[in-house]
Amino acid sequence: MNAKALLAKCWKNEEADLAPGRHCIDEEFVVRVSGTVEKCDDELAAPTVSIPLIAVLALFWEKCGIVREHALAMLRQALQEAMTSKVKEDGHITGHIKDIEAAVKAIRQDLIASLPKMHRDGKVLLDDLQVEIMPMEAAAVPEFGGELVAA
Questions:
Q1: Using one digit for the tens of pLDDT, what is the confidence trace for 67-92?
Q2: How far is CA 91 from CA 51, 53, 76, 77, 102, in A?
């Protein structure tokens, strides 16, 4: 078990709350971790974030043949509209696409699902993990009564 990795997963969405610039840190603390961790089995999944967007668009443009300029103009317009209005698959898109469910289903099932599956590490579930941080002076650190052995 890698305790540092578990702690990083627990706090992956925490903000550092630092102003721009260099900050010196010299702090000691005691960390108490308790609860359970569940590691799920590895799985094969359709790629989503690993799809090389630029390569896909370049190949798509090449395969458009005679209509490539028109296809590029439509893609440019869609990209600009999506970026300037900061939309996702939500209400704004639903208003522009008559049958959004069929469009999303076609992209996910007919395109992405047909791609070769990729290995994905099993999820690590930390729902029952509690982490407590105490400053060194406030923590009651027990005396070590064992013998240190070099590895």
A1: 988 988 988 888 887 778 765 656 66
A2: 25, 24, 22, 19, 15
